[in-house]
UniProtKB/TrEMBL annotation:
Source organism (scientific name): Syntrophobotulus glycolicus (strain DSM 8271 / FlGlyR)
MF terms (GO), sorted A to Z: oxidoreductase activity
Cross-referenced InterPro entries: Flavoprotein-like_sf, FMN_Rdtase-like_dom, ISF_SsuE-like
Listed name of the protein: NADPH-dependent FMN reductase
Keywords from the UniProt entry: Flavoprotein, FMN
Any Pfam family matching the protein: FMN_red
Residue ranges of domain NADPH-dependent FMN reductase-like in the record: 1-146
């Protein structure tokens, strides 16, 4: 079983990183055989998407020196993904947004039927706004939100208290159960994904077949019924 964890904070050892590390430890204590790939975007420093759209045609990004393509592949091959970002200006961090632009999660439906955890930390207000953005990303990319958490924390304070520890334990256990269930019968990604995929993404790709060539292939590989064959 393989899990990918993405920390969208520029500070690897900040509040978000500490919480994600605790989820990682919880998972390891449930099942030592789980392989966990933990990525700190603050260290990776993903380069901006330059908007060339060549990934739609070719299936990969031409920017190769920051490892985002490899992370994207690992996400595709994983059984579940955990996304964490600090709240920045009622939103996800810039690092996380650049990652989303580069990782083609939505257009290739890379989270199809995967359980995901979404997490944000915030200091004062609007943690819910950042969390909504993460949850929507998961749903429109084909995944489902197994657990979701916003944790209020003062700057540079340790976010792990007894309440957080308890919540993280519950979230991790549910995530692990979902990972096992998903292995037997993968459920659909929900109504939002259905609408986003069948009424928005699919018709648009079909209308622009030449430009979306590789995207259509990738979606077929991800076992999604696609009109390109019809
Ligand atoms: C540029 C910037 C914008 C922020 N915007 C918000 C915000 O809108 N709401 C809030 O409650 N906290 C905000 N914060 C505080 C962070 O969300 C909070 O300190 C977070 O826990 C930091 O996570 P980290 O330690 O993992 O980097 C902001 C911090 C920064 C640096």
């Amino acid at each position: 079983m393989q899990i990918v964890i993405i920390n969208g904070s520029p500070r690897s050892k900040g509040a978000t990183g500490k919480i994600l590390s605790m989820i990682k430890e919880n998972l390891m204590s449930i099942d030592k055989s789980i392989q966990i790939c933990f990525y700190n975007l603050g260290e990776i420093k993903p380069r901006f998407c330059d908007g060339c759209l060549s990934c739609y045609r070719t299936g990969f990004c031409h920017i190769k020196d920051d490892g985002i393509e490899e992370i994207s592949k690992e996400i595709e091959n994983s059984d579940g993904v955990i996304f964490g970002s600090p709240t920045y200006g009622s939103n996800i961090s810039g690092q996380f947004k650049v990652f989303v632009d580069r990782a083609h999660l939505l257009v290739e439906q890379l989270l199809k039927n995967k359980p995901c955890i979404t997490l944000t930390t915030y200091e004062n207000a609007e943690g819910g706004a950042a969390l909504s953005i993460l949850k929507k990303l998961v749903r429109v990319s084909g995944g489902y939100v197994s657990g979701s958490l916003k944790i209020k924390v003062e700057h540079n304070k340790n976010p792990i208290d007894s309440t957080a520890t308890h919540k993280l334990k519950i979230i991790t256990e549910r995530f692990y159960k979902d990972l096992q269930r998903a292995k037997k019968h993968r459920l659909g990604g929900g109504i939002l994904n259905y609408i986003a995929f069948h009424f928005v993404l699919k018709p648009h790709a079909i209308r622009n077949k030449a430009r979306y060539n590789r995207t259509l292939d990738r979606q077929r590989i991800n076992s999604i019924k696609y009109l390109v064959d019809q």
